[in-house]
Amino acid sequence: MMDDTLPARVAIVGAGAMGSGIALSFARGGSRCTLIEPALSRAEQALDGLREIVADHVADGLLPEDEAAAMTDRIGIAELAGVGGALTAPLSSSRPSPRIPTSRRTSTA
What we know:
By secondary structure, the protein is of the alpha/beta class. It has a domain at 9-80: Rossmann fold (3-Layer(aba) Sandwich), CATH 3.40.50. The chain is built from three helices and three strands; from the N terminus they run E-H-E-H-H-E. It has helices at 17-28, 40-59, 65-73, and strands at residues 9-13, 32-37, 75-79. Strand 1 (9-13), helix 1 (17-28) and strand 2 form a beta-alpha-beta unit. The radius of gyration is 19 Å and the shape is globular. The chain starts with 8 loop residues before the first strand and ends in a 30-residue tail after the last strand.
């Protein structure tokens, strides 16, 4: 199913569940996608997982084989070298969480 309103190429930073799902959606619409991860091994795992999902859709009769092959061919991977953990902060970060000043809160009572 090609969608002319989608971009021809898409780069997705993060190959986790969300990034992989986004890539699959764009690829189904006809866009060429690149999943970008700091560790190439994680990107490869994500790509293997996407292939399994697509194969399951074919086995369940939800997707024709030729369309499935075209979708997976449109998804590539890349390593974002030299970044490490700079894209995310751990939950235990010493950075304070943003707070809403109490003077701006409204009361419904």
